[in-house]
Amino acid sequence: MDALLMYAACNRGFLTNFIVSANLTQSLKPIFLRLIYRIMKQKLIIGCLILLSCSFRAHSQDTTFAGKAIVALKSFLSNHPAEKAYLHFDKPYYAAGDTMYFKAYVTMGQRHEPSQISGILHVDLINTQNKIDQTLLLDITGGIGKGDFALPDSLPKGNYRVRAYTDWMRNNGETGFFYQTIAIGSLLGNKVSESGDRNQQQIPGKPEIQFLPEGGSLVSGIKSKIAFKAMDLNGLGIAVKGTITDNTGKSITSFTSAHLGMGWFYLQPEDGKSYSANLTFADGTQNTIDLPDAEKQGMTLTADNDSIQKISVVITANNAAYLQNKGKDYSLLIYSGGVATVVTSPLDSPAIKFDIAKHRLHTGVATLTLFSPKGEPLSERLFFVQNYDDLRLTVNSDKATYTAREKVVIKLNAKDRADSLIAGNFSVSVTDENKVPVDENTENTLLSNLLLTSDLRGNVEQPNYYFTNVTDEKLKELDLVMLTHGYRQFEWKQLLNNGYPPITWQPETDLEISGIAKTTGGKPLAKGMVTLISSKGHSFLSEQTDNNGNFRFKNLAFGDTARFILQAATDKGKNSTQLTYTTKTGPSISTDDRQTIQDNGTMSLYLKNTEKQREQLNMQGLGKGTMLSEVKIKARKSEPSAMSVRYGFPDYVLHGKEIGPSSQLAIKLMWRIPGVAIVSEDGIHYYAKLRNIMPEKPMRIVLDGMEMPVGFDLNSLSAVTIDKIESMVNTSDSDTVGVLAITTKYGLQPEDIVSTGFLAIKAKGFYKAREFYSPKYESTVPGKFADLRTTIYWKQEVITDKDGNASFEYFNADGKGNYRVVIEGIDVKGNLGRQVYRYKVE
Fold first, then answer.
1. What are the residues facing 686 on neighbouring strands?
2. 495 Cβ contact partners less than 8 Å away, ≥ 6 residues apart
3. What is the Cα–Cα distance from 671 to 683, expressed in whole angstroms?
4. Which three-class secondary structure state does DSSP give residue 799?
5. What is the structure's pLDDT at 474?
6. Helix and strand totals (H; E) in the chain
7. What does the alpha-carbon distance between residue 446 and residue 437 come to, in Å, rounded to a whole number?
8. Of 66 and 610, which is predicted with more confidence?
9. Is the previous residue joined to 156 through a cis bond, with omega within 30 degrees of 0?
10. Do the strands 178-185 and 158-165 form a parallel or antiparallel pair, or are they unpaired?
11. Can you give the pLDDT at residue 717?
């Protein structure tokens, strides 16, 4: 009977059918119902009810607070679907002059499915002065993209950051932004300017410590767990010990940090008393900190997450709160993996206890939130669910031990939690571990980022520590992370009050070029026509402006930095217009995620190998030569125009210094170029034509290698920007009636052209990632030069087939010892996988 009642309480459908259809006498039915009610009331199995009876659908028509909370959360998740970004790098640190390879994963929702929202990922390399050194636009397809940064030889050493985000993420601040601090060394010496190494300086002051009561607050008369986190001047965890005393000087308890400056102790505050912590830090610094004041009337929320199978929850009211709120309904909302579940219970005793089964929750950060009868959030508790439901990756090599320069074949098989074979998208990095030592605890990985750090506020120190060789002790330490960090995805007060800002940033799916067209009098050019012309002048698109003169060319795709011409005309076909190209600005650079990476000697080891490697490359004539300090080039070298090759050698060359200063280029060119006439149209628009050639046709203008539209206005250019003008009257192109190849001093810039019907622009396009070079050896016999590679192999896309299989091959370098293979990836359902495999080279 007990087993039957347990199952019935976990299944409402079964319970209803059982009561209706069971052959029970009328006298037994009330007894049966009372037994069920007693079990439910005592919260013996309420965890089952929570997981099986509540869902968004079930509460969609519910007018209670629980229903309203579910509807509000569902609306938020529907209107603000979260996107996250993660980058997998080929190694954890670099030297100036290296190439930093990476693969991008962009996911959506709390289950990390590859994103179908955005098609563009912005990736920035942020220097030690908190400025952007390089920025890339990655084409994201199916949530996947790839890129790299070529690091200049002159790059100062220091802790750099890589930031990745989509425009859609900007609607929620930096919640989904990816940040990673990466150390970059330099072979130019140890001299680094003060500003160049600013983020590694120590800030004067004492170590800090935070005391955080479980659930958010201390309540008089209730024994509570208080977590703490001690940090040194660089924000890293530091050991601490201390004692707690009350305001009478009486010693209450003592404590010692357990892991990375984190720990906990119990305290039951009394009415009318205050408490202080007397601290001694690892460096000998001492301090006294006041603990948060206890509420005289209130409730606490505590959770025991030590068990893999369940989490045990206790809601406790002190005597004053219980007497005032006895019998009122309190709600507990459990949120995990994008799904919310609510249980509502009357406060019929000072302590309400129940268990929540975790097998239906999703791996990652989950939240418990206690709401008052009026729907006010009272307490919140984060907890981590570890269901071991990530992809199971099996990695095997064709041999256990290899020799230098020998071919290696690696086979990969991927399965999900149900042992089903998985077709997934993976990236792989192979490094020589003797040359690139790695502290696995500090690594930022696909699992640690998407499942942990991306959902928490602040810096989580050594994030991968909690995902390697997981033990019961590590799970307890991970619970300390939950107690000392806040949730970053949403806040209940804003959500329930509809306080989130409206959508400002729409998803970018393709490239766009937009701007504003106006008349020469400065009024918006309504219903005018704007044409976008490619740099070669052979393809164009046209769009009509709106009433405010705005135009937008959408669904574009082009590589790297491309050059275009914008041409505008009024509705009567006149080109007396002004054009402005709208360039998008990125978000401000946050300092919240700045971290200090302490060098434990690995960088020195890496740089010694890098120096040897580059010496050998220089000896082979493959290197970059002697590295010099940064040189600022103020003017470019004058070179023959590339158009000379196409149209023939110039008949006449007019240099900029011969033209003289003037804002009216056309006037300065009149009668200056043999065989060329400068013609005016209505005394406003000036173009060039060949003399004595009928019918009259404008000459073709080639500006810094770009073919301008026919009839390009020469007065759009200022004479002071001209380096030289090459005239080709007799061209090799029979369809061309003369060419003027104009070369500017600094390269064409958008601001160089005064917009009168035309505007030359440079637009940033999709970055095309470099292919990683992996040599192929015919023999394992050492060559004349040693192969000192640190990254042995890097492949951004390894696709498993329908049977979950994939393979790849490469050749070892000359380094002996352990080689480390790291494989990370994702399937279409958002299942994540990571595997580290090692083999030996002798």
1. 680
2. 72, 73, 76
3. 17
4. strand
5. 94
6. 13, 45
7. 19
8. 610
9. no
10. antiparallel
11. 78
Chain segment 509-527, per-residue pLDDT in tens: 999 999 999 987 889 999 8
Is the per-residue pLDDT at 133 higher than 50?
A: yes
- 159, 4, 148: which is closest to 93 by C-alpha? 159
Q: Hey, what are 297's tokens?
A: 């009337």
Ranges assigned E (strand) in 269-399: 275-281, 286-290, 299-304, 310-317, 329-336, 339-346, 351-357, 364-371, 377-385, 392-397
Which residues are paired to 15 by β-bridges? Answer: none
In this structure, the strands spanning 94-95 and 178-185 are: parallel
The SS3 assignment for 303 reads strand
Regarding predicted confidence, which is higher, 63 or 32? 63
Count the Cβ atoms, other than its own, within 10 Å of residue 746: 13
> Above 60 in pLDDT, residue 636?
no
Continuous segment of H or E residues that includes residue 447: helix 446-451
Residue 565, judged by CB atoms within 10 A of its CB (0-12, 13-18, 19+), counts as: buried
Which residues in 459-574 belong to E strands, given as ranges? 511-519, 529-534, 540-544, 550-556, 561-569
Helix or strand run (H / E) with residue 266: strand 262-267
R_g of the chain, CA atoms, integer Å: 34
Strands of the sheet containing 364-371, edge to edge, are 339-346, 329-336, 364-371, 377-385
DSSP class of 449:
H
Asked if the model's pLDDT at residue 8 lies above 80, the reply is: no
How far from chain centre, in Å, is Cα 601?
29
Token readout for 454 is 């991306």
Token output for 525: 């050019």
Please tell me the distance from the alpha carbon of residue 376 to that of residue 331, in angstroms, as a whole number.
10
Both tokens of residue 671? 């009668």
**Are 765 and 534 spatial neighbours (Cβ–Cβ below 8 Å)?**
no
Distance from CA of residue 109 to its chain's centroid?
14
Whole-number Å distance between alpha carbons of 701 and 695: 18
Backbone φ and ψ of 28, nearest 5°: -80, -30
